[in-house]
Design brief:
Number of domains: 2
CATH superfamily of the largest domain: Periplasmic binding protein-like II
Shape: globular
Strand content: 15-25%
CATH architecture of the largest domain: 3-Layer(aba) Sandwich
CATH class of the largest domain: Alpha Beta
Distance between the termini: 38 Å
Number of helices: 15
Helix content: 40-55%
Radius of gyration: 20 Å
Largest sheet: 10 strands, mixed
Number of strands: 12
């Protein structure tokens, strides 16, 4: 898959100069970008006659803000987390995308009712439901592996290095969940000074046992290399390693924090109409179903989320079993509270950075 996507990207870049209204679509790279390419991008290229020049980034708004403020727009469409979609919209970084632009479900259900609750914004359209989970390598635990975030934080019962993303969200939530807080209440607790103290105190208990990562491709590599015995990760990254690379790893869904990935269009792009057409096309029911054949992120439309599909290269893998939105996987889950993080991330991130720097 990696070789295929590299060739496709190279081909796209080679032919892009000859087509008008080519768009640069920026995402997270790895198996996710590969799934987006195969699941939606190829079909849009065929439909529109335009081309897509893919790019990758590590998230956040800094690069987007710099492009918009200088007027030097290099990216037309970007895949962002919901928190950044809300913040960027508030800061005027994105073009408006109204829900009436989006087509209904195949049965006629309007888009406003077909997309999951609390997922649409004024400047973005959700495409997938992704999840922060943790996974472990069973070979390190012959007597049974960890089953909860409490186990993840139990270094005596489950010894070994564990991986965490070097970012406050959602690591502080995991710390509170491990300390007995209901996943749905974690951000409410974080909203208090006592709650923040409690989360950092819990992190202190495993700080010496953590390998910190930044990019989504790192957790599977850390597991594969044996640098950690368990790690926080994006569920799609772990699924890709299991389905495409034959890794015998186990995902722990208990306490998962799920989030929506959104397509946004940078304010001031010269390719606005093509960018809008791409976003609208790639978030139809049909395209969401098609993309779910390539990666285990749940579609953001109700009309697509319950459609049974199998993995594109292995019909024995039922993708619904591996989605964050599967009923069995949602029993003790929480949606990322994007409003909380949009309002509080700057202050909490600063405190996390100070704590992190202490070593």
């Amino acid at each position: 898959m990696k070789k295929l996507i590299t060739l496709l990207f190279a081909s796209t870049a080679f032919t892009s100069a000859s087509l008008a209204d080519d768009i640069v679509v920026t995402s997270w790279g790895g198996s996710f970008s590969a799934a987006q390419w195969q699941g939606t991008h190829v079909d849009w290229i065929k439909k529109s006659g335009h081309n897509i020049i893919p790019d990758t980034y590590s998230g956040g708004l800094s690069e987007i803000k710099a492009q918009v403020e200088t007027g030097n727009i290099k990216w037309d469409v970007v895949d962002v987390g919901m928190q950044d979609a809300v913040r960027g919209c508030d800061e005027g970084l994105f073009e408006t995308i109204t829900v009436d632009m989006l087509p209904p479900a195949p049965d006629g259900t309007p888009a406003s009712a077909d997309f999951f609750e609390n997922s649409l914004t004024d400047c973005s359209v959700p495409s997938v439901v992704a999840s922060h989970i943790f996974a472990y390598d069973p070979k390190h635990f012959p007597n049974g592996g960890p089953q909860s975030w409490a186990d993840f934080f139990d270094v005596e019962k489950f010894p070994g290095k564990r991986g965490l993303r070097s970012q406050a969200r959602p690591v502080l939530q995991f710390a509170l969940i491990a300390d007995g807080v209901d996943p749905k209440d974690a951000t409410k607790v974080l909203a208090t000074e006592e709650g923040l103290d409690r989360a950092f105190a819990k992190l202190d208990t495993i700080k010496d046992h953590v390998v910190w990562w930044k990019a989504g491709a790192q957790p599977p590599q850390l597991l594969a290399d044996g640098e950690v015995v368990m790690t926080h990760a994006y569920n799609g990254r772990i699924f890709n390693a299991v389905a495409n690379e034959g890794r015998d790893w186990t995902i722990v869904w208990d306490g998962q924090v799920y989030d929506y990935d959104h397509w946004v269009i940078l304010k001031g792009t010269k390719n606005l109409e093509a960018a809008k057409d791409f976003v609208i096309f790639s978030t139809t029911t049909e395209m969401m179903i098609n993309q779910s054949r390539y990666i285990a992120y749940g579609p953001a439309r109700r009309s697509a989320a319950s459609v049974p599909v199998t993995f594109h290269s292995n019909d024995s893998i039922n993708m619904l079993d591996h989605m964050p939105t599967a009923p069995a996987n949602m029993q003790n889950a929480a949606q990322n509270d994007f409003e909380f993080w949009a309002d509080n991330s700057e202050e909490i991130d600063q405190r996390f950075a100070t704590w992190f720097a202490k070593g």
